[in-house]
Design goal:
By secondary structure, this protein is of the alpha+beta class. Helices cover 49% and strands 25% of the residues. α1 packs antiparallel against α3.
Length: 151
Amino acid sequence: MSLSQRGFTLLEVMIALFVLAIGLLGMAHLQITSLKHNQSAEYRTQAALFAADMLDRMRANREAAQNGNYALAVGANLPANTNTIADADIVDWRGNLSQYLPNGIGQIACGAFNANSEFVCDITISWTETQNDGNNYGTLGTSTFTISGAI
């Protein structure tokens, strides 16, 4: 072995460790990104379930829904008492939204009967989560889920 070949194996090991470190950092970034997107998907799934739940409650209490007892604006205060089924449903629903979604809030807007003689209501749920604005992932923003259903 000549003097010019000494230390060559050490250099190969250092390059291999560098390549391995870059690969592990890439895998760690992939894992973190996956966790962020899974959390966002969980929130959207929760919102869809809560919206469908409220539509089912309104269908079970159809007369009250058609009389506007379930109408609820975003900033509206909750009913002071829960003497009616509609008020109890609204209080329970808004409590679930605030418990399971960060800054979760919901609104219910019902219109008139459509061409098929169905009473249609829109349920909108909003919550705060980390957004991807294209340049960086980490800014907080509001996500919204809306569903329309016949009562």
